[in-house]
Write a structure and sequence with these properties.
Two copies of one chain form a homodimer. By secondary structure, chain A is an alpha/beta fold. Chain A has two domains: 245 residues, Rossmann fold; 96 residues, Orthogonal Bundle (Tyrosyl-Transfer RNA Synthetase), CATH 1.10.240.10. Chain A is 50% helix and 12% strand. The first copy, chain A, has a seven-stranded mixed sheet with strand order 3-4-9-8-5-6-7. In chain A, helix 5 links the parallel strand 5 and strand 6. The longest helix of chain A is centred in the last third of the chain and has 26 residues. Chain A is globular. Chains A, B: Keywords: Aminoacyl-tRNA synthetase, ATP-binding, Cytoplasm, Ligase, Nucleotide-binding, Protein biosynthesis. Chains A, B: Its main location: cytoplasm.
């Protein structure tokens, strides 16, 4: 297993990741503590899709002490947004709502240009503009949310040089696996990604405690931020980390270059029907066998999708699992349920995305 | 001998540099050709202080063909400006006047912050604001000159990522001597310095031929720009290169950390008198010996200063040389002459610098 922000090779073993990255599990105690702030424990937390953290409890302490709490997350605009991207943003919005936190949302157009030699600057700009609509459509509080792109908001480079002065090539190489043939832009990029950890503090000249909700593969960036923070006299950012959101192929493979394995946010109901119909399941080859032997929800992508987000009802999801195992439930039922849930979700999202077109200026952070 | 933009170690052998860098000498033929465009061949050319070039003749060809010609030079704001910095700018202004060329003037505040761990961002900003006044005081055509700093003009980072995508760590290491302990900001910086080579072309969407007047130690940067130019479908920049401007110490040593070896542009007449009085000369220890044996102008810093810029009259400078050698001239005379010339020069510069305070907005390039 090999994890950098640019590639995940091999099967993912989350126990190993926890150990390798030195992060901690989200415990039931933490979830209990959250009930002090909200009656609604988000499905992504209940199901432990957001499964790990670093100093999340310290961030909660800061919140309780009245220290300014900030959220920071991001998006690399190298394609159209799909469900896998959206899930962590939905969770970020949840945190924003619970903690009334300011959110900085970084679009790493520079990074995507630097790692995709086949893409033009225009390609990246098109995806950037497109993706920003999806970000806004999540429904972040417009008064508390600032979206920016690294190529269009110069403060990020200004902060990045302060960070970069403290990061040697040797450290960056060890953390991100750079080689002699890495380009000098991507070698510098970790400083650009670290910069928003200190943006509020620098813009406002005030203390703040930043929490970064993101997929676990982004965690190496925050180690850099955490190393540098004390040197710049800022507080170290905390993190809360999700598992990888599965695709629709066998073993949950998902890839933008194989569009049939992803549900894009622009997909039509017909697209969704077809993709879910063709998704990899844990069912038996025939109805007869399914009824005799039962299916295997543990390897079933359709079940996973219901579990990780689309079936909010804990009892219902347990029922589905149990019925599948004993052969009482057939794949068609699950596919139909999931298709319905996703189509509903996308219709709502697409409506909000249309409205987002008039709200871009409101959200964009300007120099 | 070891030359990178950040250090010159050992004695400088210009023949070796020519060979090592693969640049060409400024020949008398080139100087003859310039007489087509101007009756005034600048003293820095006549004396071959600007001694080498790369494709300067091609740039002249472009000028003759009516292709847009552009000048690009820069300043690293890590201290107050001294005469050694100003000399190439004066020559750049000369080229601007002769060829009616647009000039982009880059202030590399990012670079100086990245290589000076002892300096704060505020230090760099103070020197930046101060140095810009000296740049403007040179008298560049305000209609054709745009000054910008890398931390304040975001287009540079935008262009730099396009360049950086084509430069591997291995290439940057070979060219600039980076090591494992170089910081990731300075590793990226060559792309920032290369960016203005393509600024006009990108801003205007038109072809242009860029000429870079600078000290020879900056030449490695333009090799990078030249390698990348065809990949971005731009013309390769040409260069015209000066020798290092000597300081006032023995062997022409000059260092901002030893202020007595530099004439700063803020120096008072008293400062100039004292510094020139204490400058290293080729004179004999006593007046008697000077008259008997003659002096050695070849190692005399005072003579160098008269030669490289301050005595414009070719006959006069030859006379000084000849009189010194045969002991007819004593050091006091040369020191007095140089002191007078420098004080006159500084008084004029300082007047223009005062006026520059109201002209900053006119010159600054904005996003």
């Amino acid at each position: 297993m090999h994890i950098t922000p640019w590639e995940v090779r091999g099967e993912v073993n989350y126990d190993e990741i926890i150990k390798e990255f030195g992060v901690e599990l989200i415990t039931d105690d933490i979830i209990e503590r959250l009930k002090k702030y909200t009656n609604n424990i988000h499905v992504l937390l209940r199901r432990k899709i957001f499964f790990a953290h670093r100093e999340f409890e310290d961030w909660l302490d800061s919140f309780e002490k009245g220290i300014k709490v900030i959220l920071y997350t991001g998006r690399g605009p190298s394609g159209y947004t799909h469900l896998g991207h959206l899930i962590p943003w939905i969770f970020t919005k949840y945190l924003q709502d619970v903690f009334k936190a300011d959110l900085y949302f970084q679009v790493t157009d520079d990074e995507k240009f630097l790692i995709h030699p086949e893409m033009s600057m225009e390609d990246i700009e098109n995806f950037t503009n497109d993706n920003i609509l999806d970000i806004i459509a999540v429904g972040f509080d417009p008064e508390r949310t600032k979206i920016f792109t690294n190529l269009n908001y110069k403060e990020i480079y200004r902060i990045a040089v302060r960070i970069a002065r403290h990061i040697t090539f040797s450290t960056a190489k060890a953390t991100f696996g750079f080689t002699e043939s890495s380009n000098i832009g991507i070698i510098f990029f970790p400083a650009m990604q670290a910069a928003p950890c200190f943006l509020y503090q620098i813009l406002e000249g005030k203390d703040a405690h930043v929490l970064i909700p993101c997929a676990i593969d982004q965690e190496p960036y925050w180690r850099i931020s955490r190393d540098v923070a004390p040197k710049l006299r800022f507080r170290k950012p905390a993190g809360i980390y999700s598992k990888f959101i599965p695709g629709l192929g066998a073993n949950g493979k998902m890839s933008t270059s194989h569009p049939e394995t992803c549900i894009f946010l622009k997909d039509s109901p017909e697209d969704v029907k077809r993709k879910i119909w063709n998704a990899f399941t844990g069912g038996q080859p025939t109805l007869k066998e399914q009824k005799e032997k039962g299916g295997n929800p543990n390897i079933c992508v359709v079940y996973w999708y219901l579990y990780f987000y689309f079936e909010d009802d804990d009892k219902k999801v347990e029922e589905i699992y149990n019925e599948c195992i004993i052969g009482k439930r057939i794949c068609g039922e699950c596919k139909e349920l999931l298709t319905k849930k996703i189509i509903e979700f996308l219709i709502e999202h697409q409506k909000r995305r249309e409205k987002a077109k008039d709200m871009v200026e409101k959200y964009l952070l300007k120099d």
